[in-house]
Predict the structure of Thioesterase domain-containing protein.
Amino acid sequence: MTATATTDYFGLTIPFMHFIGLVPESIAPAYARTTLPWRQDLTNSRGDVHGGTLMSILDFTLSAAARGSADATEGMATIDMNTTFLSPGTGDLVIEARCLRRGASIAFCEGDVRRADGELVARATATFKIIRRRPGGD
């Protein structure tokens, strides 16, 4: 039996982010910040946070910056994401993302993962399709 996800991710329930322990901290127009407390079960064979985990937390935080508010009637579908890994993800991590440009249907974002000491761990850029949920739609 699994626990029910209860974390509020800026107006959304996202079981996977809850499962890995991502903590939503702040959201503002074109900006989002989250943190990931270090856990051994999120690491690779060297004890660093796994690259797949880093990409997942970047994907969510960048998409939150694209939404820019707690408007749960909008969704983001990742079209493209490019991630560069610069140093090991050790200890607790801080993720900050910015929406660089948002049009009627596409948003362009960038973001960073940093260790608590400020060292840059990973940087990503992403493009999102903005999905507006329609009343009575899917």
User: Anything to note?
Assistant: The chain has a mean pLDDT of 91. The chain is about 15% helix and 40% strand. The CA atoms of residues 4 and 15 lie 8 Å apart. Helices lie at 15-20, 51-67.
